[in-house]
Amino acid sequence: xxxxxxDAATRTRVRPPGADxxxxxxxxxxxxxxxxxxxxxxxxxxxxxxxxxxxxAPVDIRVRGGLGxxxxxxxAALRTRRGWxxxxxxxDVVAAPGRPVGPAPDAEIICLRTAPCRHxxxxxxxxxxxxxxxxxxxxxxxxxxxxxxxxxAVDARQPSDTSLDAVVAFLDRALESLAAVxxxxxxxxxxxxxxxxxxxxxxxAALCALxxxxxx
Length: 216
Known about the structure:
Elements: H1 19-34, H2 39-53, E1 61-65, H3 71-82, E2 87-90, H4 91-94, E3 107-112, H5 118-124, E4 131-137, E5 153-154, H6 165-193, H7 200-209
Parallel strand pairs: 1-2, 1-3, 3-4, 4-5
Helix pairs in contact: 1-2, 1-7, 2-6, 6-7
């Protein structure tokens, strides 16, 4: 069961490394919009614009957990301690069987107060490109129950509590690589759009504008 994966995290906007190539892509897409496109091409162009918007969108941190998991307490502590403003979500709703998976956040923290049930465990095992940290709340860090031994024990009632250091360090690490990760996501989305019959040539040109990493 994963504790941490690689990638993530505040409400500030993220500027990718090598922002000039991204700016060139923005100008290319903007020029295509100004020159007018048909309805079919317009759909593809909107996809290109949305992909670009995600590159420097506000950082998206999600704190998820079931009822009584301490998810809101942890989110409030992170806001007090570092100014991060996570979105709090009910894990029982997000991970409900059959529920469509929404857009991936930049970082995800899951709070567990009890051993994870089947759908929570399945959610934690899902493949993901973004960072994931699972923490145990409301347990004795010196003598945790068996299910919690592989997770950091966190007590977020006091934002200064040292148990929060692991969460802060996780988000700091994720932030360091977030811009590069978002650029890689843009490249991946452009590669998908490159086969679009209406905007494929524009997406291909955008990949070339990103430089050697964009198209080899």
